[in-house]
Design goal:
about 120 residues, alpha/beta, Rossmann fold, two-stranded antiparallel ribbon, about 20% strand
């Protein structure tokens, strides 16, 4: 799947979302939201972002996203890939920095569509 194809999907989760406006976890969440996507912030250490509920895990979301955008360290990304597989989420978008070789390899081993790119550049 190409980045452009993934961007046609309208329900996303941003893993590693944050309320800190200078961080990419916020910029990506806000960009998707402001471009009309249904986007769920996921971060166990944050309660809300700009008034929206921030969820502790992918399992806590009110619906299953079509794409999960990763803005997290390697260990968190590796665990989240298992969550994606368990929930039937087939498309994972790894931001620069989240696209460690072990995360890419595990995503492919699990049969997921792995995109390595920057959402901010593609939108």
């Amino acid at each position: 799947m190409t980045p452009k194809e993934a961007l046609t999907k309208k329900v996303w989760a941003v893993l590693g979302a944050t309320g800190r406006k200078e961080k990419f976890g916020y910029k990506i969440y806000a960009c998707l939201r402001d471009h009309g996507y249904t986007v769920y912030p996921v971060n166990p250490n944050v309660n809300e972002i700009d008034g929206a509920t921030c969820y502790a895990s992918l399992h806590d979301l009110p619906e299953v996203p079509e794409v999960v955008d990763f803005v997290v360290p390697e260990a968190v990304g590796l665990q989240a890939l298992d969550d994606c597989k368990a929930l039937g989420i087939s498309v994972v978008w790894l931001q620069p920095g989240a696209d460690k070789p072990a995360v890419v390899a595990k995503g492919k081993e699990l049969g997921l569509e792995v995109i390595q790119d920057c959402v901010l550049v593609q939108i």
